[in-house]
Amino acid sequence: MKSDNFKALISIILAAICGGGFAVFTKIGLRQIPPFSFTFFRFFIASICMIPFVLREKQKIDKNILKVILLSFLGVANVTLFAFGVKLTTATISQMLYAIVPVIAAIFSYLVLKERISSKKIIGIFSGLVGILTLVLLPIIGKTSSFAGNLLGNLIILTAVLCFALYTVLSKRFHKHYSPLTLTFIFSLTTAIVLSPFLIRDYLTNPIWFYHLSTFSWFSIFYAGVFGGVVYYLLYQYSIKHGTPIIASMTMYLQPLLTFLWAFFLLSERLTIGIIIGGLLAIGGAWMVTRES
Question: DSSP string spanning the chain?
Answer without folding.
Answer: -HHHHHHHHHHHHHHHHHHHTHHHHHHHHTTTS-HHHHHHHHHHHHHHHHHHHHHHHTPPP-TTHHHHHHHHHHHHHHHHHHHHHHHHS-HHHHHHHHTTHHHHHHHHIIIII-----HHHHHHHHHHHHHHHHHHTHHHHTTT-GGG--HHHHHHHHHHHHHHHHHHHHHGGGGGTS-HHHHHHHHHHHHHHHHHHHHHHHHHH-TTGGGG--HHHHHHHHHHHIIIIIIHHHHHHHHHHHS-HHHHGGGGGTHHHHHHHHHHHHT-----HHHHHHHHHHHHHHHHHHHH-
